[in-house]
Each structure stands twice: as C-alpha cells, then as structure tokens.
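@channel sequence for tomorrow's demo:
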Amino acid sequence: MIEMVEGFLACLGAALFLGLMLAEVKSIISRLASRLDDKDSGASEGDHTHFLVDGDSASQSSMPIHQAK
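structure tokens (generated this afternoon):
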C-alpha cells in the first residue's frame, strides 16, 4: 500500500515539474518573439556607448589643444 502512495506522489511531482518546465519554456519563447517584433530593442538611451564619428574628428581638429604650463 505504501508503494502505491509513493508511486502516486512521484507521478504528481513529475507532472508538476513537467508543467512548470513547459510554462517556463513558453514564457521564454514569447519573450524572444516579442523581442523580434520590437524595433527599439537593446540598451536604453542612457546605456548606449557613444563613439566619435569620422566627421566629428575633422571638426575637432580645428579646435586648439590646451597644453599644461
């Protein structure tokens, strides 16, 4: 009788585990699908690293460089 209860509880645990795993996989897939639909995906505006463009270097070369005295 005890073996039947243990087997039943093992089946319930396995079913619960499988259900939770499937739910998590579904949420991951839906997040990936929504990320592909987003055109503004990526880092927020404050997190962007800004680089100088080639055109910017020409305008900065005309500015005098201050040297330490």
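heads up for whoever presents: Residues 1-35 form one domain.
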